[in-house]
What does this fold into?
Amino acid sequence: MSVKRGMALERIDDYRWRLPQSWRPGMRAPGLVFADAALLEQEGGEEALEQVANVACLPGIVGASMAMPDFHWGYGFPVGGVAATTVEDGVVSPGGVGFDINCGVRLLRTSLTMEEVQPRLEELVNTLFAHVPVGVGASSHLRLTPADMEAVLVRGARWAVEHGYGTEEDLETTEDQGCIAGADPGSVGPRPRQRGASQLGTLGAGNHFLEVQVVDQVYDQEAAKSMGITEGQVTVLIHCGSRGFGHQVCEDSLKRMGPAAERYHIRLPDRQLASVPVRSPEGQAYLGAMRCAANFAWANRQVIAHHVREAFQRVFDQDWRQLGLEQVYDVSHNIAKLETHVVDGQPREVCVHRKGATRSLPPGHPEVPERYRAVGQPVLIPGDMGRYSFVAVGGPLAMERSFGSTCHGAGRQRSRGAAKRLLRGHDVREELRAEGVLVRSRSAGLLAEEAPAAYKDVAQVVEVAHQAGLSTKVARMRPRGVVKG
Amino acid sequence: MGVQGKPCQYNGKGDAAYLMPPTYRYLRHTGEVAVRASGADLAEAMAGAAQALFGVMVDLRGVRVRRWMEVTVRSTDLEALLVEWLNELLFRWETGGVLLRRFVVEEVSPTRLRARCGGEPYSEGRHHLKLDVKAATYHRTRVLQSEHGCTAYVILDV
It folds into this structure.
């Protein structure tokens, strides 16, 4: 641990570290980092800690400014940041959600084994690549009229199901049933609509992907059984968000927030943290627009899941229901939600910002779908394309320690430039193929930047979350076929 | 690759400033792409930042200048102007499908920028697309000016 970090962070236990409120003037709460000593050593840690301290300056923040085990240097909030502010007199901050509003993950299971899929894996990956628009500039198969767009913003994944993309059961197994209440299209200007118009059902690029996986380890038999997950089973993971629609909503909101924050005399150390009171007209407008973007993302994943089912049908020549291509769950990891949590012994309504963090509800929580209530809310944690991803369930201490939140994924450990330099001369695609992972991507250059070496080891991240009681490991999946932008 | 001496009808800046392409570099940042663009003055630094933006998204060597468009942006201050400028270009690309590689900033003040931008429509066969940029962020945005020149720093969310 660097001397600087060693001096700043106080150890609470093996997995929790406190950044004292006194560390910097302006902090209204301490920082709380969920990590082990090894994760704290990794690159970008010091800058990320600074961001944890910046977030602690948000008016109305309660508890602590938190960093999940996969935390790393973002812009404004650290990625892996969680902060709750009181609705009564606290602020809402678009930077606490990020540009990719409702970037999230959806997991589908199948009744296929790897033995059955392996001989046709290449064909499957190519067919998925053909069916799901992916990459910069790729455009949707759907043509949305302005009226369709309005409906998508309010009804989210439900709109997609009503138009033949998926089933009611998909909605039951999606966070917020794929449609968050309180979306206000009136708060969304023309630009997000223009950007999102031809993007519904597209995967995007960067670290977004779609993966055919095999479950190679089950840690919790009871939870796995309730999700229909078994060792040797083939699953499909979809990782993407609200595309240009969400990016533009965030941009438009930040532009308005700056001058608005001035009017409310809210001064923060980082402009990207621009905030306004939750109850203010600007705060309500942001939340209304953010929910539209969240719904767009859920509709997006719903349509992509449909394309995935179509691709499987084509390759295996059977209806997707016969292939058992059912949804396990769908979670968001960039979102702000109004929730009730116990703060200083009293239930308070708070605005929980999760930026690169996933909601994590424990067994028995009423918002967990009935079929999972005994085991807890499924948590989907993608890793990098070379190694593995995990499924977990809400842990017993998440509500008490992290406002019901846990990690979201691997987290970068090297910048794109450093990853490219490290891997210069390596044929990333071939190296992955040698390890049994087939990759189809639109952009070859991107592979080095998204290669395993660029990311932290998600197993470490998931282990810390498990030990800290935030989420409980259920199963591990290894990638076999990857489609990327 | 320099421009081959063709004069341009703009605000009377010398040919030398136009012929020397603005310079930019990508800096270390774990999650996103950090840009440092420098020039002899604010106009050049802004042009450099724009070129850096498109340089992230596409291999600029394959982009030709076949049409020009005028872009005007306004904002509250210089850093916000830089972000607004880049996000406007990004918006034009995403909605209009035009890749841009030449930027001639004809007028710039702390709150207003007017430029002519040259490029061509995206063509799948010819243009090698790289990364998707979600937005230019306000995080650590800075514009430093002195008699030696101007440097703009901005972080792009990719």
Remarks:
- The two ends of chain B are 26 Å apart (CA to CA).
- DSSP finds three helices and eight strands in chain B.
